[in-house]
UniProtKB/TrEMBL annotation:
Record has Iron-sulfur as a keyword: no
Keyword tags: Plasmid
Sample GO molecular function, one term: alpha,alpha-trehalose-phosphate synthase (UDP-forming) activity
Keyword set includes Acyltransferase: no
Pfam families recorded: Glyco_transf_20 (PF00982)
Superkingdom field: Archaea
A Gene Ontology biological process term: trehalose biosynthetic process
PANTHER family: BCDNA.GH08860, TREHALOSE-6-PHOSPHATE SYNTHASE
Name by which UniProt lists this protein: Trehalose-6-phosphate synthase
Length: 497
């Protein structure tokens, strides 16, 4: 059931994201006698592409994204376009083909070794390399060119995330009548951190090609405007209106906290029965009376996984009675694996888990279960539902949708969410979650103990408060809010002309 209105901005929308909503890939190797490989399609993991796909299906627009495999182009036409969804085409997916060097420079390099750590204020991990920047600029130009093929004579373009900080300026220069909007899915850093970036002026200039720039939290928008004031003296910030005036153009800066599809998650977790839980416990050797704590993360250094393991070690060390009683399941998902910092992190997490299991484990109990198995969303909602605790401990996170998914799946109101105050989601969930500070090991262990001892009344009351919030501020509401604001901003701009 679609709830979104398009508020006049949706027609012929061109959406731009690094990840594509559908990915084609080869299956089999022909060894079964059919003489060749067949092509299958799946949806890359990620709430964003899943959430925006239904909107695009209604709008009949174009989605421009990186096509990252041979099969993606084998099914596309000579312009690298393919109609999707494959079984019932509703809109065009325009795939952008990138060379190996471009991917290394733009994606592995500038996006994920410069901007990602910079925006998460992890300055020790930031790397600026000339080649990375050159590729980032070139790839932004490639995407801008792709957009311009579909946005002739105006139209609306919606950029997603930190991969495209330069493309808005490129598109605006070529097509001043296009309405450009951008949602930045990660935090924006303070001026003192952004200062270390040699390309700070170009990045700000690029983003200010947009008419509307959105962040998860008001705080990130404020930091962005502070950076503009400090590093782009030609620009003027109108703090009252939340606008930046720069080179005869106005960029409106707003916050839109991203939500999850709470109704869908509720339905999926309601469908997960006791058999599902029993199978999961059996599969991982977790006894039926053992309390289950869960962590679900991309294996990213911003998620605070080593810090969480340290807290668990302290917990089992200082509360020996919990040994045999509590198992922590870490579901990890490999990510950006060609970047050395991610490879090191993965090794470190796996070594630490082995060490803790060695230290505390017994013949019939393991303190930590580690799995990288890919569960589909239905199964994941089931796992969330029967997990007694969820441990979410990012060192910094734009929003963190795992926290919201866990809450939405608590149809029995029974679980406890332990949430880092450094996750954007904490702003909305602090009434019900227990604070879980990844930097304070002893306090983290206390929080887990408190969660384990919490009585049913308090658990239910906290969870109900959070569920209400997650349902009120869900994904369709977010989309509606973004599109309604865009409609208003666009109408104001048109009046001004
Ligand atoms: O949080 C930012 C983000 O780009 C998400 O939109 C996405 O789910 C995640 O990072 C995954 O990153 P990647 O596309 O690099 O695998």
């Amino acid at each position: 059931e679609q709830r979104q209105e398009t508020h006049g901005v949706g027609e012929n929308l061109v959406l731009v994201s690094n990840r594509q909503p559908y990915r084609h890939h080869y299956e089999g190797d022909g060894s079964d006698g059919d003489g060749g490989r067949s092509i299958a399609v799946d949806n890359p993991v990620g709430g964003l592409t899943a959430g925006l796909d239904p909107v695009m299906q209604r709008l009949d627009g174009t989605w421009v994204a990186w096509g990252d495999g041979e099969a993606d182009f084998a099914v596309a036409d000579e312009d690298d376009q393919v109609a999707v969804p494959p079984e019932n085409p509703e809109y065009t997916l325009q795939r952008v083909r990138l060379s190996e060097d471009e991917v290394r420079g733009y994606y592995d390099g500038y996006a994920n070794q410069a901007l990602w750590p910079l925006c998460h204020t992890d300055t020790c991990r930031v790397r600026f390399e000339g080649d990375h920047w050159r590729h980032y600029r070139e790839v932004n130009q490639r995407f801008a060119d792709g957009v311009l093929e579909h946005a002739q004579g105006g139209g609306t373009v919606w950029f997603q995330d930190y991969h495209f900080a330069l493309a808005p300026r490129m598109v605006k220069t070529a097509e001043p009548d296009a309405f450009l909007m951008h949602f930045y899915h990660i935090p924006w850093p303070a001026p003192d951190v952004f200062r270390i970036c040699p390309q700070r002026t170009e990045l700000l200039d690029g983003l200010l090609g947009n008419d509307l720039l959105g962040f998860h939290l008001p705080r990130y928008g404020t930091l962005f405007m502070e950076c503009v004031e400090e590093f782009l003296p030609e620009a003027t910030v109108d703090w009252g209106a939340g606008e930046v005036h720069y080179e005869d153009h106005v960029t409106t800066v707003r916050s839109f906290p991203l939500g999850v599809d709470a109704d869908d998650i509720r339905q999926k977790s309601e469908d997960a029965d006791g058999m599902f839980e029993a199978r999961f416990r059996h599969e991982h050797g977790i006894g039926e009376d053992v309390t289950l704590a869960l962590g679900v993360d991309r294996l990213d250094y911003t998620k605070g996984i080593p810090q969480r393991l340290e807290i668990l070690e302290h917990l089992f060390e200082t509360r020996p009675s919990l040994r045999g009683e509590l198992t922590y399941v870490q579901k990890g998902c490999g990510t950006r694996e060609r970047v050395p910092a991610y490879q090191r992190l993965r090794d470190r997490i796996e070594d630490e888990i082995d060490r803790l299991n060695e230290r505390f484990g017994t013949d019939d109990w393991q303190p930590i279960v580690y799995t990288t198995k890919m569960y589909d969303h239905d199964a994941l909602c089931g796992i969330y539902r029967f997990s007694d605790l969820a441990l979410v401990s990012p060192l910094r996170d734009g929003m963190n949708l795992v926290a919201k998914e866990y809450v939405a799946s608590q149809v029995d109101d029974d679980g406890v969410l332990l949430l880092s105050p450094l996750a954007g989601a904490y702003e909305e969930l602090s009434d019900g979650a227990l604070e879980f500070d990844p930097y304070d090991t002893a306090a983290g262990a206390d929080a887990i103990e408190r969660a384990l001892e919490m009585d049913e009344r308090e658990r239910h009351s906290r969870m109900r408060t959070m569920r209400r919030r997650v349902h009120e501020a869900d994904l369709p509401t977010w989309l509606d809010d973004v599109l309604e604001t865009a409609g208003q901003v666009r109408a104001t701009r048109l009046e001004g002309h």
